[in-house]
Design brief:
The complex is a heterotrimer of chains A (163), B (91) and C (119). Chain B has 91 residues and is mainly alpha-helical. Chain B has 4 helices and no strands. With 119 residues, chain C is mainly α. Classes of the chains: A mainly alpha (163), B mainly alpha (91), C mainly alpha (119). Chains B and C meet through helix 1, helix 2, helix 3 and helix 4 of B and helix 1 and helix 3 of C.
Chain lengths: 163, 91, 119
């Protein structure tokens, strides 16, 4: 994919931060409203795909790089499993919600029944949302990026062979 | 039409019959039969996990192992795609 | 009251996908068929957990007149569908890259010709 015209690039640069903020909102409020790590991660990855379409795969590969994205994916997986293992140490079982009701970070128990939503609840669920969000963003975007870059590379090679 | 195609057609019609009859024999839409586990989760999700969202509490707390397996599959798929395209770039 | 129409739609989706998998010889069409089967399975899980007139199982700003276990849809099938969608995307990407690789090696996407080339 080569880069598109200047109008498309400018509009993509304006819209990109808003989509990013919306995706981060969906990830951060995963324990209160519809959404969570998977959905917000898909939204942020689609924002990155917009960047890829507007600016071309060469530019995106040079600026972001596939190595850095795979490091981010490993970081997300590491935090997810580390939180589950902390449940084994502080609680009794794997995936125990050891932060709920502990008056620590995210430790409050909400009012039972309908309430207006308090950010400081949920135990380990918001932290796991963030870990899975990082993982899904990096995973989906590295798939799109590597496919676009490789097909661009193949096209160029075929053009050289013919010309 | 070869014998292989005949076999495929017979198999396909048997599976079609199976799916259509089982769709007609399902419980009526909107009233599931066994809901004990889900009722328990809906009633206790705020008290046990502290989260308002029942689906997120199921994904990350009650059924965390599913999410762990899903994360593993995502990791494996990404590793496979990157591996295939890296070899393609070199050749 | 729409009777069993969602389940019949599920059966139709799965049958269309199976038709594409069994009778089409193009590998891209096989991949499309597998994706259609997967959306049928997702729709099946969602319709399985639906209750008549139910709201999502989320307590933030819940309306007052909802009875607590009976007025909400089941959360477990929705969580399973959520993981299933992400798995579907990952598996679709892996399948497509394998198909691209096959096309580069054999120069064709026809299943019969690929089989003949290998022998």
């Amino acid at each position: 994919m080569s880069e598109m015209s200047k109008i498309v690039r400018t509009i993509a640069a304006i819209v990109f931060p808003f989509i990013m903020i919306y995706g981060l909102y969906v990830i951060a409020h995963g324990h209160l409203t519809p959404g969570g790590g998977f959905q917000g991660g898909a939204i942020v990855a689609s924002a990155c795909a917009l960047l890829l379409v507007a600016y071309g795969s060469m530019w995106t590969m040079r600026r972001i790089g596939e190595k850095r994205l795979s490091v981010f994916e490993s970081i997300g997986a590491f935090f997810f499993i580390a939180l589950a293992l902390l449940g084994l140490f502080f609680g009794a079982v794997f995936f125990n919600n050891f932060l709920a009701g502990s008056s620590f970070l995210f430790g409050d128990i909400p009012m039972v029944g309908s309430n207006t939503g308090d950010m400081n609840t949920g135990g380990v669920l918001p932290l796991m949302n963030f870990a899975v969000g990082i993982k899904v963003v990096a995973g989906l975007f590295v798939i799109i990026l590597v496919m676009a870059y490789a097909s661009n590379h193949m096209e160029k090679k075929r053009g050289e062979k013919q010309g | 039409m070869s014998r292989r195609d005949m076999f495929a057609v017979v198999f396909f019609s048997i599976v079609c019959m199976f799916f259509i009859f089982s769709a007609l024999l399902m419980h009526p839409f909107g009233s599931p039969d066994e809901t004990d586990m889900d009722d328990m989760i809906i009633k206790n999700t705020q008290r046990e996990t502290g989260a308002n969202n029942g689906v997120t509490s199921v994904v990350f707390d009650y059924r965390g192992f599913d999410t762990l397996g899903e994360a593993t599959i995502l990791f494996t798929a990404v590793a496979g795609v990157v591996l295939l395209f890296r070899r393609m770039k070199e050749t | 009251m729409i009777f069993n129409i969602p389940f019949i739609a599920v059966a139709a989706l799965i049958i269309i996908g199976l038709y594409a998998v069994i009778f089409r010889k193009n590998l891209i069409k096989t991949v499309i068929g597998i994706t259609i089967i997967e959306s049928g399975v997702n729709l099946f899980l969602i319709t399985l957990g639906y209750r008549e007139g139910g709201v999502p199982p989320i307590y933030t700003n819940l309306p007052e007149d909802v009875s607590i276990p009976r007025g909400m849809v089941l959360p477990v099938p929705q969580a399973l569908t959520l993981t299933s969608i992400v798995i579907g995307v990952a598996v679709l990407a892996l399948m497509l890259s394998l198909v691209i690789h096959i096309y580069r090696v054999y120069g064709t996407l026809d299943v019969r010709r690929i089989r003949r080339l290998r022998e």
